[in-house]
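User: Could you go from structure to sequence for me? I need the amino acid at each position, not a summary. Structure tokens:
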């Protein structure tokens, strides 16, 4: 029996020596030391031993078990260490690798310019108003002193939906809407940004849809000089303190008098270049004193209050600011164009 135990020890230790992984190691543990294992099987024969032999064989059996257990434990530990090392290797993060930058969008240049214009007027105490893009003939034309068949309606070729409803051709309808909502109170001091639509053929300077910002101030003793001072302040904040403006008489049915406003050409500083057609000036907006008939439509008595209004194209302001040569760049969503404004 002693020989069988020794043979078992040798066999087990040899096989343990060659074991390749933790699963095989566990199989050997069961095979040799398990309840139905080889060691137990040999020990079942202990019953047939004499009283003197039994403790001796018992001792040998314990030694064999201890030897196998020790090798098992060592092997197990080695496999555990190898496994930990493997996982550490596999899960290592190289913190020196350059990261993947997330793609960050940016505001559209027109949105930027719009917000910049809004900020300037908010700083002067204006509030921001809104109006519908689908507008009635009354607010878009009639209330602005443009009765049906008025020749000046041709200045703004319109998209009609019905005889009485159209896509607004300018943001000026918000003037009368705002005045009516103010219910006779003064002062009214608003700007209104928004989309407008005209039946133009698209080219470098025209688009069937573009954006305007309307301005309106109504109150007692509002004068032309208030209008001019406001616009000069706006232009200097927008383009720089060296800027000048000039007002040229012009006609809008909803103003009296009306004017067009030019600013110093930013490209040549007023000396004359191709951009300003060698005049030194660039036209940026239309404006004027609110026509008495428009004040009446708004619910005011033109002998008691007066007002000024202006309307500018956001695209035009942006084209000049960034020296862009084609309005269509704003709408084509070409990332090569748009990305140039990401960091501005
Ligand atoms: N609504 C005019 C346009 O679109 C601009 C304007 C607004 C002119 C206010 C005078 C006063 O051309």
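Assistant: Here is the amino acid at each position, in order:
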């Amino acid at each position: 029996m002693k020989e069988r135990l020794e043979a078992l020890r040798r066999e087990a230790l040899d096989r343990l020596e060659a074991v390749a992984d933790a699963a095989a190691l566990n199989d050997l543990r069961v095979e040799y030391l398990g309840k139905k294992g080889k060691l137990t099987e040999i020990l079942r024969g202990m019953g047939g031993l004499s009283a003197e032999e039994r403790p001796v064989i018992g001792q040998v059996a314990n030694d064999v078990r201890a030897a196998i257990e020790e090798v098992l434990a060592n092997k197990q530990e080695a496999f555990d260490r190898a496994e930990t090392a493997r996982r550490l290797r596999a899960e290592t993060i190289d913190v020196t690798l350059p990261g993947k930058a997330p793609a960050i969008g940016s505001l559209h240049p027109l949105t930027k310019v719009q917000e910049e214009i809004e900020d300037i007027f908010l700083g002067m105490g204006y509030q921001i108003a809104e109006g519908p893009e689908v507008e009635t003939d009354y607010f878009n034309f009639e209330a602005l002193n443009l009765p049906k068949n008025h020749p000046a309606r041709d200045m703004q070729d319109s998209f009609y939906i019905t005889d009485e409803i159209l896509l607004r051709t300018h943001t000026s309808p918000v003037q009368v809407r705002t005045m009516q909502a103010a219910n006779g109170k003064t002062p009214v001091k608003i700007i209104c940004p928004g989309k407008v639509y005209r039946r133009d053929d698209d080219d470098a300077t025209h688009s069937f849809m573009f954006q305007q910002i309307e301005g309106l101030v109504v109150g007692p003793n509002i004068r032309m000089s208030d209008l001019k001072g406001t616009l000069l302040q706006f232009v200097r904040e927008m383009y720089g303190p060296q800027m000048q403006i000039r007002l040229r008489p012009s006609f809008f049915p909803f103003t009296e008098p009306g004017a067009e406003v030019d600013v110093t050409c930013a490209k040549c500083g007023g000396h004359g270049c191709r951009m300003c057609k060698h005049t030194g000036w660039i036209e940026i907006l239309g404006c004027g004193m609110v026509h008495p008939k428009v004040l009446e439509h708004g619910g005011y008595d033109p002998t008691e209050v007066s007002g000024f209004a202006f309307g500018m194209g956001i695209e035009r302001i942006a084209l000049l600011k960034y020296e862009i040569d084609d309005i269509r760049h704003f709408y084509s969503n070409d990332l090569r164009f748009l990305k140039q404004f990401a960091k501005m």
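One structural detail worth keeping in mind: The chain has two domains: 2-90, 109-341.
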